[in-house]
Design a protein that fits this description.
This is MFS transporter. This protein has about 450 residues and is mainly α. It folds into 2 domains: about 200 residues, Growth Hormone, Chain: A (Up-down Bundle); about 190 residues, MFS general substrate transporter like domains (Growth Hormone, Chain: A, Up-down Bundle). The chain is about 75% helix and about 0% strand. The longest helix is centred in the N-terminal third of the chain and has 33 residues. The protein is globular and about 65 Å long. The N and C termini lie close together (about 5 Å). The N terminus and C terminus are likely disordered.
Amino acid sequence: MSVPATPQEAAAPPGQPRKAATAAWIGSALEYYDFFIYGSAAALIFPEVFFDESDPATATLLSLATFGVAYAARPVGALVLGHFGDKLGRKKIMVFTLMLMGLSTFLIGCLPTRDQVGTLAPVLLVLCRVLQGISAAGEQASANSMTLEHAPPGRRGFFTSFTLSGTQGGQLLATLVFIPVAAMPEDQLLSWGWRVPFWLSVAVAVVGWVIRRKLDETPAFAQQTAEEGVVKLPLVVLVREHWADVLRVIAGALIASVSTIFTVWALAYATSDAVGMSRTAMLWVGALANLVALAAIPLWATLSDRIGRRPVYLIGAVGSAVTMFLYLWAVSTGSYPLTFLLGILCFGVVYSAANGVWPAFYGEMFTTRVRLSGVAIGTQIGFAAAGFAVTFAARIAGPGGDDWSAVALFTAALCVPPVVAALSARETHRVPTEALGVRPARAATEPEKVTA
């Protein structure tokens, strides 16, 4: 039996939810290809290219700190891009962020090295990294809002998960590109080879622009603009009506620490003298884990459409704390079979539960008029802390960089705030789209139904 469509649903052109999800997937994959090749380079290349080679430990620490710089820039980008996204629409921000990311990443590939210009080299590197962070601040929130507001009843979890499976696709692509690069002879790798993945961002920007410029604005935003006009100061409304939800999203976003520790610190640790695993093998661990995540994310998200966001998210948060400990232990043994198995389990399967459901879970906490601001600001503050988790992990690991158990406990501690945030949040998987973010006293009480 069919349920009458809401005004927002009726306004959606046929096939638009799939088109929005596809655009979010491809755009996020292309944009986060740029973002993640920096992580691989920061762990494997930049300590020797941009920093003082006479002190390898300090060079690695400084290189990993530049990875975190983009996360520090994210909250600033979220304030600006969230504001304009709720005023001008989701589509404009999605196009802008993609172009900015492509440009800043291409410029990294053109930078002079420390041997060529001295200390100016790391300064220019940090500047480009800041631009990457500003871009990433608006990317996921705008793509997430776009897919959520286009999604049909009862399937918001599935459709919004395309944003995160896209980021995993981008990470997979970045890893696959870096595998042959990392296998190059040392002199070619350090002179020009490392630049090639960054130069490819030109193609990223062009393809992403073609895809996203054809996407329609969401019916929810169009209806909001037509009936009430845009909010002049979304941040004021956000703080006044949704401050508790913003705090929940900030706490929840700390779960991204699992990703940064896995992607950057564990890679640097495994290939260090303390363990001595090969760069190529460890890049393949990430590639296979991301390949599994591409399948796991939509499956976990579909489950959340049936049983709720909170239980699936909690599986991911609690499970990540446990499996990260097992993964880092496997790396410390130098065993390739154990490392591959537990890396895929930790990052590909378990972490995907939280990673796949948060786009719907966080986005459903806010109303249409401040959704992009709420998700952008909340996630990017939390992601900023997650980005610097790599730098703290390098410190916690000690002078030799080999105290993996301390890093595992540190990562587990960062999983606690997401658990608390999820337990305190409302369950929203059956709330109608037009009632999302409305206080319980004002919200519709009829559960959202799926068209048969």
